[in-house]
DNA sequence: AATCACTTTGCACAAACGTGCACATGCCCC
DNA sequence: GGGGCATGTGCACGTTTGTGCAAAGTGATT
């Protein structure tokens, strides 16, 4: 976000008395003329007595600030086969991001992230309490959020992010900050490590009022947004490589046939999770509690995550699933 | 609408079994990639293995068929002053179409019509019964409707359109047809003249079952769309010039201080209408009944209609008002 | 198989658009 | 009052997009 934009947002937050900042008034007019009346930017420039380039900039501002919302709605009766199949087989609303074989894995992540961010926008409401996990997928999403004005919304961190190494994850807080900025929401960080060394420490901490406040927010979540980690083939995801777990922990995971995690809470292929001891030291949300949340959005990019995803779906963790087409195919056809 | 598009629509109506026509499947993919992933048309063409120009055409198809919906939402707290004032003074939701002094009157009509058509789209739902008036304003609107898939919707004509002269108004049915095509709705015409010569004929006709069917539909309307006629300064609108009324009728209107009409039902500046005898010969809907409709959308373009509009607002005929900025200013400032 | 009517495609060109850059304007702090 | 900084503007250029046109499908009919 440019410093200019930030400044604008701040000014708006300070409930000052000037009725409408002239800049965004013009942006609104321009947007109406461009998107609703089909004028060219040149024509708009003449009417606003400014240059075409300024109009171009007004319009991109209008898009970025969520003044203009572009939605794609495919009437359910003609929803693409893949999305229908996923809904039928797994009971979640699927949003498949079109992608062909020409596209590299990192491009896929980018595209899924952009589309996820755009899909999220319309679902966010005022008075929402939005739980957000951290990880490479959600980080990518956070870079592409479009702004939307809401009142009294809160972003709450789903699981701690501290670890023993220096593997600088300042970015958990960065991710949260971006969500907060996009939706004009309060941000509540969760200042604990991802895993405690001792389950007793967790018990103790969970009794602290400062922590209870966060846990209470989590219980009242109206929406949760998370990726999945997967122990499957290929690159292990952040949690498995970033110094959060030691050799012994990883051995435990293998012995327990863990296939993946959501917000550092682990589960098996069949979705079971209650008897995995590592979860007692994890700061992620109890999955039973997570299942109570009205809207639970899972973002997945890349086939390496399929195993983890299968487990997450078996556990019923998501109500909505945003994933790339390649993964979607694999998910449906090899099941 | 092009013959091609029509053909497509017909094929869709015939509930055939092929799951998804390949053309619109591509359109959906293209739209997602363009609007949700910010790819260029060139990139999309490569992925779809076609030419860029085809992608351009797919995208315009996606827009026209309502696959892509572009909305402009100005958060209420920063709604432009004009719209707020109108809401406060007249109790209707105003949608002001930005227009500057550089623009000619006929251009204004066009722009209001386009924006009205776009604004309408999101409000139309399945199972709707939509009453539609006829007149130059609504005719203009009907040319710009974007398609939207709905089920079991009905378009019903609000008032008769026949007259004694040859002033070829085939266009009442044309207007209706376009609404029907845009929303995939049944069309119910109202095959009566605009005015009967004798009130008794109306009474007789209103007892006919064929007419009753239409009246019944009108009573169950969920939405009504109409312009206003105005006797005020400048050009008299269609009804006053088109051979619907003779000299004597016009004299009656003047004597009764009629300021305008909605769907050929007349009212005075204060909104009163029940004792205007001409209304007993009009085929337009009883205004009391109209007021029961949940959503009543009034489209107005041009300052010459202000007098009529004032009366219509006083009568509480509209819940939503779409009008050009110049008229909006006049409406607010000279009241 | 040939014809016809009609749709769809790619090309080529013109129009419309985004953006780096240099300059203007306003504001704060010294 | 002037220098420094932040913000906004218009120009110029390269890129991206819309569209008329001719050619290539497509499918029904003879």
UniProtKB/TrEMBL annotation, chains A, B:
Keyword Lipid metabolism: no
Alphabetical UniProt keywords: DNA-binding, Transcription, Transcription regulation
GO molecular function: carbohydrate binding; DNA binding
Ranges of biased composition (kind: Polar residues): 1-18
Taxonomy, superkingdom: Bacteria
Sugar-binding domain residues: 81-332
Span list, region Disordered: 1-25
PANTHER family in the cross-refs: TRANSCRIPTIONAL REGULATOR LSRR, TRANSCRIPTIONAL REGULATOR-RELATED
Membership in a protein family: Belongs to the SorC transcriptional regulatory family.
Protein's UniProt name: DNA-binding transcriptional regulator LsrR, DeoR family
């Amino acid at each position: 976000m440019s410093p200019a934009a930030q400044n604008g947002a701040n000014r708006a937050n300070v409930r000052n008395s000037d009725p409408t900042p002239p800049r965004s008034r013009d942006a609104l007019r321009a947007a109406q003329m461009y998107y609703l009346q089909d004028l060219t930017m040149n024509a708009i420039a003449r009417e606003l007595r400014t240059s075409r380039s300024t109009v171009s900039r007004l319009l991109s501002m209008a898009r970025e600030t969520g003044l203009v919302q572009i939605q794609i709605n495919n009437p359910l009766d003609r929803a693409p086969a893949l999305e229908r199949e996923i809904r039928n087989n797994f009971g979640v609303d699927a949003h498949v991001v079109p992608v062909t074989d020409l596209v590299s894995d990192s491009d896929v992540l980018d595209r899924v992230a952009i589309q996820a961010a755009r899909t999220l926008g319309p679902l966010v409401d005022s008075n929402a309490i939005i739980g957000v996990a951290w990880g490479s997928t959600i980080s990518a999403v956070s870079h592409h959020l479009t702004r939307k004005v809401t009142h009294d919304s809160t972003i709450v961190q789903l699981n701690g992010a501290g670890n023993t190494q220096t593997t600088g994850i300042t970015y958990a807080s960065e991710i949260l900050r971006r969500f907060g900025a996009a939706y004009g929401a309060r941000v509540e960080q969760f200042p604990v490590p991802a895993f405690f060394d001792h389950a007793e420490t967790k018990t103790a901490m969970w009794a602290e009022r400062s922590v209870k406040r966060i846990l209470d927010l989590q219980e009242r979540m109206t929406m949760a947004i998370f990726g999945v980690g997967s122990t499957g083939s290929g690159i292990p995801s952040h949690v498995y490589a970033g110094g959060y777990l030691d050799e012994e922990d990883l051995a435990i995971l293998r012995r327990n046939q863990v296939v993946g995690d959501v917000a550092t809470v682990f589960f098996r292929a069949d979705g079971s999770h209650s008897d995995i001891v590592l979860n007692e030291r994890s700061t992620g949300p109890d999955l039973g509690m997570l299942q109570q949340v009205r809207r639970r959005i899972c973002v997945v990019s890349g086939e390496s995550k399929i195993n983890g995803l299968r487990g997450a779906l078996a556990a019923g963790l998501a109500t909505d699933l945003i994933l790339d087409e390649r993964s979607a195919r694999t998910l449906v056809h090899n099941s």
